[in-house]
Amino acid sequence: MTTPAPYPIGTPGIAWGPAERAAWLDRQKVLRSYADDVLSRIEPLRARFDVVEYGRLDYPPHSYPLFAIRSGDWNDALPVVLVTGGVHGYETSGVHGALQFLEQRAADYAGKINLIVAPCISPWAYERIHRWNRDAIDPNRSFRADSPAQEAAALIDLVAPFRERVLLHIDLHETTDTDESEFRPALAARDGEHYVPDEIPDGFYLVDDSEHPQPEFQDAVIAAVAQVTHIAPADANGEIIGSKVFSPGVIRYPLQKLGLCAGVTDARYRTTTEVYPDSPKATPEQCNAAQVAAVCAAIEYALT
User: Fold this and answer.
1) pTM score, two decimals?
2) Are 269 and 168 in contact (CB under 8 A)?
């Protein structure tokens, strides 16, 4: 087996200090525009939804407004459905899938649910196509009280007034080749740990909550997505990214214990989607469509 080259920042086996974090930040460059890609698509939605600014990331010299789109006819008698995307800014279909759902399918559920969608939780990372925020923190390990990540803290505050009434939360993610070429090596270097390469699953899969599993719900979402794109098979060990496969395309994590976004409420139905955009068998359009199909299937199952 080829030994991976050391990450270019830091000393192997020693966790980063301020100098290493500063060197990492200096490497991050703007590669795309939050305003052009996301805010420009949110603006027309104001005609059909309430658009609320629920926070603002203060990353001098820039400030990033955070927006959620919610049902204009909010009715406290109806269940709440929460859709989140872009917790990891580099996971493109999470953001664009959430926006596409709002543009094309959300109206189908008017009068049936109270919908709230936060399509791009991490705009700084979206612009830099990165997993972490400006402070080299993974927001998707930070959804807990006194969160060190501004992105996570803002969403926690957003959902606080209706947290106990959320029926469904679906969090839209991707697994990409850069997980192995950049992000996992960077994580090991940051924390002073040894990096062990892993296998990237080829296809769509879901992460259920190991503390409160809903296998029939997860299977219903997988069945719908399978009509759009292929489902990731288990590896030779019967696993996906080191976790046991419980049914085709479904693994489980303790969502709240790990501080994952999908555990930000106590919703009965919770799941994290994972699309594989680098597959030769998938296109960006399929990845976005798979996210939309997953959201729709999740809502329809939860309502029945």
Assistant:
1) 0.97
2) yes
